[in-house]
């Protein structure tokens, strides 16, 4: 995953793109983004373009861009509906001593 900025402005005033590449299949997903794109916006693009179509990747390679913080991953797991855990507590007939 990487960004390319400094491109000519499109009709929606976007001047950059975010790039997602599957290293195995070489499939590329591109999305137009604003120069001020946040980690939350990037996470939503990732969920909508990659996660919903291909599932969670086993590896995730990026540079040290500040957009790839814990906030990015929190948004991926929240927006991607990956936080659905069900906790089951079993009742026992005999209490422990």
Automatic annotation (TrEMBL):
PROSITE patterns for the chain: INTEGRASE
Gene3D superfamilies recorded: Ribonuclease H-like superfamily/Ribonuclease H
Transferase as UniProt keyword: yes
Keywords: Nucleotidyltransferase, RNA-directed DNA polymerase, Transferase
Entry keyword Transmembrane helix: no
Protein's GO biological process: DNA integration
Gene Ontology terms for molecular function: nucleic acid binding; RNA-directed DNA polymerase activity
PANTHER family documented for this protein: RNA-DIRECTED DNA POLYMERASE, ZINC KNUCKLE (CCHC-TYPE) FAMILY PROTEIN
Name assigned to this protein: Reverse transcriptase
Annotated source species: Phytophthora megakarya
């Amino acid at each position: 995953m990487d960004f390319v900025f400094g491109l000519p402005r499109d009709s929606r005033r976007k001047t950059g793109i975010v790039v997602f590449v599957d290293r195995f299949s070489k499939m590329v997903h591109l999305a137009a983004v604003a120069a001020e794109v946040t980690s939350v916006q990037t996470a939503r693009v990732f969920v909508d373009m990659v996660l919903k179509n291909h599932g969670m990747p086993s590896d995730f390679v990026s540079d040290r861009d500040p957009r790839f913080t814990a906030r990015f991953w929190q948004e991926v797991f929240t927006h991607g509906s990956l936080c659905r855990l069900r906790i089951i507590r079993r009742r026992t007939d005999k209490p422990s001593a």
